[in-house]
Amino acid sequence: MDVVQLQRQLVDYKASLYNEAILDEQFTQLQELQDENNPDFVVEVVSLFFEDSERLLNELTKALEQQNIDFKRVDAHVHQLKGSSSSIGAQRVQKVCIAFRNCCEEQNVQGCLICLQQVKNEYSLVKTKLETMFKLEQQILAAGGSIPV
Amino acid sequence: MVLATETTQFHVLAVDDSNIDRKLIERLLKTSSYQDDQERSSNSASVSSDDDQNHQEVEVNLIITDYCMPGMTGYDLLKKIKGSSSFKDIPVVIMSSENIPSRINRCLEDGAEEFFLKPVQLSDVNKLKPHLMRGRSKEIQPNMNKRKGMEEISSPDRTRTRYNELEVV
């Protein structure tokens, strides 16, 4: 595939992520903060997000497996996940976190378990999508092209 | 238990338990500081970053802190700073992901210069310049530009000296 085709593919791919609300405006803000002097900024922030999220999802799973669930603790983890997803523009993850926090407030165990599954799904989705997008970008750069804005 | 990053030639202390948000603030501050001439505020204080003999003295021109942190809220930090004779003149800015008017008002009334809703934008960080340059003009104009749409009082024209050294930490 030549550079022009790859670039077109990337543009379409990115557009679909926004159309499906997987990413929002905040992700665009991140990209705008990247420049020649900080060419890896977006990848670095997103990598931090992946690490952080995986840690939080593990903590959440453990916390919800307990006999006596500590909802304050669960809520604290969800709050963090909501914050970091919001900071990178992972809109769908953020939205599930909002519902998740409501379930915590109501001390609704079933609701929390459902939300946990949903947030895991949404996280998995955004991770896959972003990794695909970064791969496409690498292919373009390797082929000597530039990343279309 | 607070985690901090130091950045820009202005020495802004960013306090946030989220490493993602710290990285974002760092980038925003660096991007903002390159946009025009900068001048270091003469109104700064030294913060000892170490307890033992080899402590490093660092000037802090502004502190930007998250509200929700384990162990201590940004508001608690604000009160501590304003209650300290050494640090009370350092401008403090608070950030939060939660839009709670009573929280915002309390922080502003008790001395925070600005309150930013997360995710923080470049337009927010650009509002920090007047606070960083405080202490230079004869009359200090309070910055009334708050997030929920109050009118902005424009600051008087100031002569700016070109900053010779770009010191990015």
UniProtKB/TrEMBL annotation, chain A:
InterPro entries associated with the record: AHP1-5/YPD1, HPT_dom_sf, Sig_transdc_His_kin_Hpt_dom
Kindly give the Pfam families that the UniProt entry links to this protein.
Answer: Hpt
Q: Which Gene Ontology terms of cellular component type are present?
A: cytosol; nucleus
- Give the UniProt subcellular location, in the record's own words: Cytoplasm, Cytosol; Nucleus
What are the entry keywords?
Acetylation, Cytokinin signaling pathway, Cytoplasm, Nucleus, Phosphoprotein, Two-component regulatory system
Entry keyword Signal: no
Example of a GO MF term: protein histidine kinase binding
- Any GO BP annotation: phosphorelay signal transduction system
Q: At which residues is Phosphohistidine found?
A: 79
What residue stretches are annotated with the HPt domain?
Answer: 38-143
**Cross-referenced PROSITE patterns:** HPT
- What domain comment accompanies this record? Histidine-containing phosphotransfer domain (HPt) contains an active histidine that mediates the phosphotransfer.
The record's function comment reads:
Functions as a two-component phosphorelay mediators between cytokinin sensor histidine kinases and response regulators (B-type ARRs). Plays an important role in propagating cytokinin signal transduction.
* Name used for this protein in its record: Histidine-containing phosphotransfer protein
Q: Which organism is it from?
A: Corchorus olitorius
Automatic annotation (TrEMBL), chain B:
The family database entries (InterPro entries) matched by this protein are listed as:
ARR-like, CheY-like_superfamily, Sig_transdc_resp-reg_receiver
Instruction: Tell me which SUPFAM superfamilies the record gives.
Output: CheY-like
Residue ranges of domain Response regulatory in the record: 11-133
Q: Does the keyword Cytoplasm apply?
A: no
Q: Which terms are listed as keywords in the entry?
A: Nucleus, Phosphoprotein, Transcription, Transcription regulation, Two-component regulatory system
Q: Which PROSITE patterns did the record assign? A: RESPONSE_REGULATORY
Q: Where is this region: Disordered?
A: 35-54, 144-169
* Entry's Gene Ontology BP terms: cytokinin-activated signaling pathway; phosphorelay signal transduction system
In-chain residues carrying the UniProt-annotated modification 4-aspartylphosphate: 66
Comp. bias regions, Basic and acidic residues = 148-169
Question: In which domain of life is the source organism classified?
Answer: Eukaryota
A single Pfam family, by name? Response_reg
Recorded protein name is: Response regulatory domain-containing protein
Native organism is Corchorus olitorius
